[in-house]
Amino acid sequence: MATANEKGASLEEAVIAIESFILRSSPALTQNIFNIISRKILIVDGVRHEIDVWVEIEISEEYKLIYIFECKNWTDKVGKNEIIIFSEKIRVSRAQKGIFVAKSFTSDAVNQANLDPRIELVTATEYDPTLTPRPLNFHIVQTEITLAKVRFTADYVVSQDHINNCLANVQSESIILAGRSIYFKQFAEDWAKVVADEYTKLVNYKLLENNSHEIELTDVRLFLPGEFIINGTPIAYAEIALKALITIAWPAVVSHFEVGKRGRIFKMASTVFCGGTIDATFVGR
Question: Domain 4-130 is in which class?
């Protein structure tokens, strides 16, 4: 079970992600700079104040806007005393607005907030992540080519002996494709990747679990006269046979918040995948 600090941090992270999304999505802020700071400490007249989320927007060199957020991920309702303290934080920080985010507020807290026009109360809803569907059916896929073989058929005007001799050194020789010289290895790797990528677009990953799946694929290409040449020999037809390993991961949803009308956020489990760590978050309004 999450500690009180962990629960508080999860709501703060959600607010930061949503506010970042709002600011980055605003056409009015394309030329302006904004900073978001978590748990900023202010000391005014010897008194220490902690601001859960500090948002600073530079309108110009002379003007800046400051918004502050208080986040209480409590089971109990937030009371009027917390609002009074927050009102003081707005004053000492010289913020234009303060937004208090919590799951619920007492009627006294609502009435106290109405006394300070700079305060906005926002209700956050935390959903059970185990009951939350993955947003956009999110999954991670890596395709690794493990084997690729290419077979060529020469133009009918070239003898079979000639093409066999030609292909003996094809691994080290360059080829001409559409007038451009490339190495055979690069040609085969590029073709194999295209075939594998096309396959992965069509796979119904809902039917596959978290593991690796080996696939075998083939593809053919026909070439116009003179379009594809190996060591001076024109090629009419090529076929590739490849094996690939598809590795799939389905990260679970670990937190899901809706912060009033400001936005919704889904945080996915950190996933170790193919030698790296992937962290994914989905934010929307």
Answer: alpha beta
